[in-house]
Known about the structure:
Elements: E1 4-11, E2 15-16, H1 31-45, H2 56-63, E3 69-72, E4 76-77, E5 81-86, H3 90-98, E6 109-114, E7 117-118, E8 124-130, H4 135-149, E9 162-169, H5 171-175, E10 180-184, E11 191-195, H6 200-212, E12 231-236, E13 245-252, H7 264-279, H8 282-288, H9 292-298, E14 317-329, E15 333-347, H10 352-362, E16 366-368, E17 375-382, E18 395-396, E19 398-401, E20 405-406, H11 416-421, H12 429-453, H13 458-463, E21 465-469, E22 494-500, E23 511-512, E24 528-530, H14 532-535
Antiparallel strand pairs: 1-8, 1-9, 2-7, 3-8, 3-10, 4-7, 5-6, 10-12, 11-12, 13-15, 13-17, 14-15, 16-17, 18-23, 19-22, 19-24, 20-22, 21-22
Helix pairs in contact: 1-4, 2-4, 8-10
Amino acid sequence: MPDHLCISIRFLGGAFHGRADHGEPEWPPSPLRLYQAIVAASAARWNERGRLRQADAALRWLEQLPPPVIAAPPAHATQGYRLYVPDNVGDLVGKSLARGGEGSIADYRTEKSVRPLAVPDEAAVHYVWPLATARAGFDEHRETLTAAVRSITHVGWGVDLVVADVSILDESAARGLNGEHWKPGANGTGTPLRTPAAGTLDDLNHRHHAFLNRVTANGGLVPVPPLTIFGITSYCSASQAPQLLQAVFVLRKPDDSGFRAYDAARRGLHVAGMFRHIASQPEIVRSVGWSNDDARRIILGHGETRGDAHKPVQDGRISFLPLPSIEMREGSERVVGSIRRVLVTARGNLVPQEFRRLTHRLDGQELTDEKSQETAAVIFRQGGKDGAIRPYFEQSATWATVTPVILPGYDDPRKLRRRLDDSAVPLSADEKAEVLRKLDARIEHLLRKAIAQSGFSEALARDAELDWRSTGYWPGTAHASQYEVAEQHRRYRRVHVRITWHSPDGSLLEVPGPICIGGGKFSGFGLFAAQPEIAT
């Protein structure tokens, strides 16, 4: 069997401070982060601060390998700590001192919250590449690569101390590595991690040269360019919720005098429709780089050719999810209120740059009421996630619907309920119990199907603990039958659902949001919010 190259890093301090592109915690550490650590360690190992020579060929071989499989232990968020960072105001302090003042840089500090991930003590993260097609290159560079990897001192911040090593594993040993196994995926719903690519080393050398020469002869400062040559790979694990591209928009009145609020049960579908209408306008579609057919597929959800019967879209698609505010009421009770924000997400294979162009173009647009043709609201991109919508994005083992799940199929295809209602042929108690058991089994099957169809792994769908009913689990939600739905969904049953996620070993598993499943999930039906207090 082909051997596998395995680079292992073992954290010594129990914490990892690395952050992803938008400041969120990064786990597992990206292959690019590991590659940069190897490059830095190579420069230190052979004292080549200006230009890499000893490890150049080995690093170029490594950057062209396909994305590795990553085996990583679980990492958990922490309360963190605070730093007080000096502001860049040395010129002001200097002027004060020159005038005989008592200026001090200690008077200019900014509070900074730091929330590292907690990693099990001395836990190892393994990066595994198959060597079936690259063995000759590895044999050539093995000694250099091993020396470079063993010279790594930290991955993440400078305080994230590690020891690292290289090993060769057979297929069985590679599969048996401890930790969650993260594999490169192709459906775009995993965790996006940066990976090295051909040219990454040259770009790192260019940045290093720019850093060394950032101060000009006349005292000017030349900004150091960001790293631009790398890949982004979607990584998935068996216990991971799908990670979606996302942007939150706030609904404002046309005169910007306050929020524009909509009732969640009666007007949620209307809000999603207004968003879909403005996003599909030709001028916006063209600015993103899409054709009209692209817009029909990605925004409107039409996978069929014009004139044919409707066909669901199998690839990338945009979702418009109205977010009812979750408000604090008297007695510290959280209650579902009106819609004041909308979450725009992308499912499937959609180019991140195109999604960002779309959300940029939507910022500041006017939503038009279909009946009156008047401006109903103005939408603005919201930078953060305030308390009213934070439960949609938290990490929790227990989640409950804010809008009901539309089952992806008939809940009673065998017409069993007719037997319960048939007074001419009364059923015994045991017969009634058996009919109800079959009906519940059908609903449970459809709910697990909906979970899997939304991008969750089969393991998560199988091990989830499910409860359902017609009334909501959140205060303020309406009866499931009272929500206005599209014509094609009216024949399917709607239920409120509570999910408690479990690992295969039965332990509670905290899953991050957003979570939206079932029919109508592209318009905000089957939207869940975290209920962490239930899981404790």
